[in-house]
Amino acid sequence: MMPVFAVLLAAICFGTTGTAQAFGPADASAGSVGAARILIGGGLLGIVAIVLQLRARSRTIRPGEAGGGRLRHGVPSWLLVAVGALGVLTYQPAFFAGTSANGVAVGTVVALGSAPVLTGLLDWALRRRFPGRRWLLATIVATAGVVLISGLVGAGTSTVSLPGILASLGAGASYAVYTLAAKALLQRGWGATSTMGTLFGVAALGSIPLLLASDAAWLLTADGLALALWLGVVTTALAYLLFGWGLARLPAATVSTLTLAEPLTATVLGTLVLGELLSGQAVAGLIVLAAGLVILAFPGRRRAALAGA
Q1: Which candidate in 3, 185, 206, 297 could, as Cys together with 246 as Cys, close a disulfide (CB 3.0–4.6 Å)?
Q2: Residue 240 in contact with residue 48, Cβ under 8 Å?
Q3: How far is CA 245 from CA 142, 186, 189, 190, 252, in A?
Q4: What is the rounded CA–CA span in Å between residue 159 and residue 170?
Q5: Is 57 left (phi over 0), alpha (psi -120 to 50) or beta?
Q6: How far, in Å, CA of 3 to CA of 258, rounded?
Q7: Long-range pairs of 67-70 with CB within 8 A, sequence gap ≥ 24
């Protein structure tokens, strides 16, 4: 259960992002905030990885270890790092483009709702291994909960922007790419900290020109610096250390579905901290989403009991 709790705690950290931004400077653009978050958080993860010394090429573990078999083709580790870092970099602009075009509700539900499905399908395609019926059931239930929370059902979806939907799907695909790239590195014997540190450290280097090209004057204010530090240290560095530790011990598709606790956290914080009101449909969505997470969080209790009998 500890890997499950680690991923859920990481998702809780992720879920504080929106609330933190609400307390940040109003003139901080989404692009510059995202770049600062990756620069600070990715830089910290990279430093931690360097201090602990990368053990990327120390050993190659057997297929089936750490929650799944290795990729069928001998993809170089440097290519996995490059692809994973690109996924980290492209996630945030794609996510914010989707929310800007269609609003936070629609953009978030498409991005976060598509991520577990895309991760599971891509993992299935690469490894020829179906994630399992329990994953499928839990993903369907949890995604339905996200849809209910967002208010997408029953809303006037005829005005939804197709480019915005594609951008949100791109964010979900970016998440799937860097999750699976990280999983492949872990299965080659990389440590969880080394994996996250390398991917996000490389992404941090790539975020420097993005931050320089944006208006980052908000970083010079007390509120702006506090926002950047929270997003970088808590929602990125700490969160992805937990995420990586859990990913090393769970299948990628399972981890992706567990991170749907992020919109659950964001919704609860929006109600308790920001004073946002929840509709009956949103409350039902919270219950459905929590049920999906419970289905996945307790996968083998009966089997474990039978094995111990």
Answers
A1: 3
A2: no
A3: 23, 10, 13, 11, 12
A4: 20
A5: alpha
A6: 11
A7: 67/183, 67/248, 67/249, 67/250, 67/251, 67/252, 67/254, 68/123, 68/127, 68/129, 68/183, 68/187, 68/251, 68/252, 69/127, 69/129, 69/187, 70/127, 70/184, 70/187, 70/188
The two three-digit tokens of residue 45, written as one number: 């993860």
One-letter identity of residue 81: V
Determine the residue type at 189: G
Helix (H) or strand (E) holding 104: helix 77-127
151-181 b/e (C-beta count within 10 Å ≥ 16 → b): bbeeeeeeebbeebbebbbbbbbbbbbbbbb
Tokens 């399908």 belong to residue: 121
pLDDT in tens, 246-305: 988 888 778 877 887 887 787 788 778 877 676 777 778 778 877 877 776 665 544 443
User: Distance (Å, rounded) from C-alpha 245 to C-alpha 6?
Assistant: 7
